[in-house]
Structure prediction request, 490 residues.
Amino acid sequence: MRFGALHSLRNKLALVFLGILAAAFSVLYLFVVPQLESNLQQRKLADLERLATNSRSTLESLTGRRDVTADELNAGVRAIADAAGARLTLLGVQQSDRAGDPSAEEIRFYVVSDSRDELQVPRNDSVAARAALTRKPVPGRGTFGGEQLVELAQPISYRGRIARVALYSQSLDDATQTVTFVRDRLLAAAGVALLLALVGGYLVAQALSRRVRRLEQGAQEVAAGRFIEPLPVDSQDELGQLTRTFNEMQRQLRRVDIARKEFVATASHELRTPIFSLGGFVELLQDEDLDEETRREFLDTMAEQVERLQKLAVDLLDLSRLDAGSVALECEPVDLGALARTIAGEFRPAVARHDTELELHLPSRIQALCDRERVAQIMRILLDNALRHTPEGTHVTVSAERQNGAAAFTVADEGPGLPDEQQVFDRFYTGDATRGAGLGLAIARELAERMDGSIAAAGGAAGASFTLRLPTQPGGARRTTASSQGRSAS
Prediction:
């Protein structure tokens, strides 16, 4: 089956891996790079604040002297700046003479000294004005000569008023270079990781999609009625479990398909034989020269064939009703011994014809909680099965007893036994296609399980027994898996 680029499971999984990794690196980039840049700027600002605090007294004493010369002032400013590794610009403050506190717009500044003694100096009058008004250090950002600067304005008092503002500035180029380096390395690592994720994810997804495609092709073959060899289970993950389940499903479907074909053949034979037989006898009965004895013999044979057809039709109807869940069960206390004696009485003519010795071990008061009519049906199936599939003169024993809190009914014979590995309770299974449609024991098992009971088969090369177990109280069932050691089901 061909898939489009976006509809292929392989491509979808590879893109999912790629998308997850890309999202992870995007989040990492968006959090790490800005945070790193902010941390570096904060560190530089903290260094400037520490420098300003340590240098304030020196600047106040230097600017407060009347006899200080310009050269001495410049030398002191350069010494402070060199010790801190920053640029220091000393600004003078000019304020208007009107009454009241001046605003930031009314304060003017002029350069008194600069640590680099250049004509052009970094100025940030707004930061300096805020520092002069608040009498506290004020941080800020600025640019000078194309460089990004971090700045700190430190007010310097003289005789109770702010006469100077020390503007410390430091370049952010080294921090920017560090951030750029980290960002480039992060992007390079992300590119390599994304490429590896794409290739690795594609390979992993390809392996997964190959296994899924193998299951898909197997399912298509089974859907077309062509059963294949079991698929290899090469892992213990969910796909491995799915493969095991698929193999089991195919095995069950193959088994059901074989049983269905055998049943169709058996049902066709079972229906064709009595129908053809009835048709032939009808033609013979139309002959007016038949004597009364021959006519009666033909009618008796026709009655047997009609009975055979009726049994097959009833079995098929029972199975269909069980599958549909339309079988109503009314559980009540039932004496298995008394019921078994009644059913055994029904089989006296058949036992006599079969020349069978029927031995009963049926004590009274073996009560079970079950549906009387359905248990009677199971008993008939088991007795009919024993007579149908054993040679004439076979000894058959019918017994009832209590077993581990359950009521048990057993039919045992001394016939040919149960060949190994044959599923006697499977639907449509017939060990001898001429002796039934393979439905009786399947119906018996279904009915027993509906009553919270079970049927077990046991036997070997000679002799076989079938035991029906039923609960004696609500919830007291002991479900027993029917051992299926082959025998043709009636």
Notes: The CA atoms of residues 52 and 154 lie 6 Å apart. DSSP finds ten helices and twelve strands in the chain. The two ends are 47 Å apart (CA to CA).
